[in-house]
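Progress narrative, work stream C.
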Amino acid sequence: MARRAGLTDRRYGNYVTGDREPDLATLLRISETLQTTPNDLLGIRLTGDEDAKAKQLRRLLDIARAMRPGDLQLLTIQAEAIVAARAADTK
């Protein structure tokens, strides 16, 4: 795991045992390598609506990653239109 994340075994071991804490860039690299989130690695758990929203955002991001550039641009425009319509409704 350490080598896949570009770290030495000793450095990664220090993070695992809690002897040291990674900087943000290293934390992100480790979470990407483990295919998880920094929050999961840090033990931060969301509850209720926040957790449901986080799941939806991850799902949307996975879908967006699989899209062609033109389709992604269309999705972005549609999402911006939805947000603008909601903002107009609250005025």
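Work stream C, second folded protein:
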Amino acid sequence: MLGDYPLKGRRASEIAAHIEQGVSSGQLAPGTPLPPLRDLAVELGVNPNTVAAAYRLLRDRGVIETAGRKGSRILPRPALTPRDQIRIPVPERARDLSTGNPDPALLPDLAPALAAAVARTGPVLYGQARIDPGLLELARSSFEADGLPGGPIAVASGALDTIERTLGAWLRPGDAVAVEDPGWGSLLDLLPAMGLRPLPVRLDDEGPLPEALAAALADGARAVVVTSRAQNPTGAALGEARAAALRAVLAEHPGVLLIEDDHGHGMVDQPYRPLVGAGPRHWAVVRSAAKAYGPDLRVSVMVGDEETVGRVAGRLRLGAGWVSHLLQRTVAELWRADAAPAARVAAAYRERRDALLAELAARGIEAHGASGLNVWVPVPDETSALAALVQRGWVAAPGARYRIQSPPGLRFTVAGLDRAGARDLANDLAAVLGTGGADTRLV
């Protein structure tokens, strides 16, 4: 069962640590079954409850999955091997379209905003307000303008930090979370690290399919995470009809936790379509500064129901305490002066996406990219397509970073791709995939 890797340990923590060491070293491959509790207890000379506790620790850390009588096994992608480590080496002179980064040329100059923030900051001491009043006012106005229900607002260190804190406020290890498939790789790593189970929800260019969300909820999902627009990796954006259909599904599940990730705020031109207010009593909408102003501005704002935001803010207070007021005020300065630049940035990204999509369509290649920085191209085989593209001077992100059950694909970040580059990439993709592109669909 475990080959040449005999397990060791007398205490639960020792047994768990030894198994984790085997996973980290590659001696215990993904999918490797673990011995039944009683068998391992006899082998190690310990109480079965000790082995049960070790397996529980590993499950909560996202290293193994347990399935009752079917036994326990190493997760296909355990939390200690994050998806963003699945990288393709970038040869010299190759173009790297795998990063997911915004175009540095379209990011704002931080110097004036930082200078203004410094001039306004002064010493921040313990016991002061944890949210900058200027950022709070801007966030509240933005949420109200998009028709969201009124609610308290909290500030955290980026979208993923906010999502983790929100999930942790309500869920326990073993709970299931409905997530988009393909979806954000960092979120797909976070869930098993928290001991949570992802339930895949298929999507198309307008977001999650209502029947797929309904199936995940029927299968026991206690939380739902939906990307409103600029979905990573496919670029999906909720349309009004799709949002209405999803609201109808959610209305049947008032006990589910709903999290909307609107990380595209400030760098897309698609309207925001809210799902909140449809039924779930506990909800949160998250907006991050990372894509619009640069990933190093680790600031996000969230609005939600009183109990959810209260739990998130309370837990933050016990740990980090607050997000730097200097960063908060810098984001507020950028946000305050951002209306015209945001429209220009959104138009530039749309033009670059549309250029690549048009070039691919002209060559019979299916692709998706309704919003955001990325274009998703279904392929029959990721490994061969990636290798062939590298030989032609292109590095894409492997779809395995983002998939649970969905078909293979490649993600291309088009943030810095001009028209000539789009044409060259489309020509090389056509050569790699053959006439007609890939015979597969997003869903």
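The CA atoms of residues 380 and 438 lie 6 Å apart. No further action is required on this item.
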